[in-house]
């Protein structure tokens, strides 16, 4: 574990929900592994610069997305932050994010965001994000994810092209590169860590590994 989380001191500000925005860039270490200890779980464990668990996604299935249903992004204490659900019959693999556990009930309301592939052609890992949900065909995206998430080398850019978060492979030292299950995300000031992490989980569901862990529900 001492090699998983970073030693940088910059992190999202303490106090209240972890969505509080820090004065400087927030550096998170993302481990593509559930915080649940038993073998076969899937998900994410996210640490701040002090090695504290600040976000988690536990034990979700990689079965057919229409069967598996949604995914819940939680804070370190297990409180639901955002619920992510696939859009039925979407040609671009659209997912919608709802505040808290609002996506689990029959009445979901307006999504916080919608994410989908940038193209019908599945030739890259690029996606586009629409805050408040996708309302019409000519709507311009609020964020775009460019690069390759599967290679852990991508950027989240706003509508003006400014980089608001960046994902890269994690190094334990200058000579040791960790596996692609562990990567670093730097979130620029003025942007919520929880929203950027929700984008990461959604990208993983769109472009992630096709396997289904044996013990997942």
Automatic annotation (TrEMBL):
Gene3D superfamilies per the UniProt record, alphabetical: LURP1-related
Pfam families assigned to the protein according to its UniProt record, in alphabetical order: LOR (PF04525)
InterPro entries: LOR, LOR_sf, Tubby-like_C
Entry's family note: Belongs to the LOR family.
Name assigned to this protein: LURP1-like domain-containing protein
Protein source organism: Cinnamomum micranthum f. kanehirae
Lineage, broadest ranks: Eukaryota, Viridiplantae, Streptophyta, Embryophyta, Tracheophyta
